[in-house]
Amino acid sequence: MSRLFINSIPRSGTHLLMRCISHFPNYKSGISCPGLIPYLSSYHSYRELLDLLSTLSVEKNNFIFGHLPFSKTVSKLLEEEHVVVLIPIRDPRDVIISQMNYIMSNKNHSLNSYFASLSSNIERLKALIIGVDSPVKKQRLLPINEIYRQMKGWTKNPRSLVVYYENLVGPRGKGSELKQKNEIYKISNKIGVSLRKSDIENICDQIYCPQTPGFRKGVAGDWQNELGPDILETFNLCAQETLLEWNYN
Fold it and tell me: In terms of CATH architecture, what is 3-92+152-207?
C-alpha cells in the first residue's frame, strides 16, 4: 500500500479517480492541495504540497490531490518519499468543454467574469485552446497544449501512472466495462493493493456518481457532439500534437 498523490489537469476526472481510490481497501479520503492550478499562473508555491506530504502517512488512510505542473524538484522529492503519482488524463477536446461550462456556471470562479464578457461559446472555447492574457487579476490562461505539456513531465517519474478517464469511467459514461476493470486492476498493481474480482466489481459499481461536485455529463467522447468544424479546425491547428502525444488519435 502506497502513499498517493493524485495530480491532474482540472476537469480530467479527478473526482472519478478519487472515488475509485476511496473504495480501495485501507484508503478513505483525499486531502486537497489548493492553489496549484497550472492554467492560471506562471508562479507556483510548492510549500503547501511539501507540508501536506510531511503529514501524510499510510496509517491515516488518505491521499493528496491537486493540479501541479511538472517540477523536477518536487518529482524527485515524491520519488524519494516513495509516493505514487496517479495522473488522470482525459481527451483535451472534452476537457475544454467541461472547463468552459464549469467556469460559466461558477460565479466565484476567478475567470467567470472574463468568460462572461466574451461574445459566444465559440470565443470561450477558442480562449481555452489558444490561451489569453486575462485582464482579470492579471492571470494568464495557458494554451491547452502547454497545459498538457506541463503534465507530461510527470510521466517520466518511475512511480507515476497515467489513468485514462475514458477507460475508468465505464459503461455509464459511454466507456467499456472491460477497460474499466482493467484500469482499476492496473491502479491496484501500481499502488500495491491486492483486489479480488468481487472488489473490482464493487468499485466499478460505486465510482460513477452524478452527485460528485462539478459533475455535468460524465461521458467520454462528447466533444464529437458539441464541437463544430470551426472549433475543431482551431484545435487541430494548435494542439494536434497533444492528441497524438497522449494517444488520442
Answer: 3-Layer(aba) Sandwich (3.40)
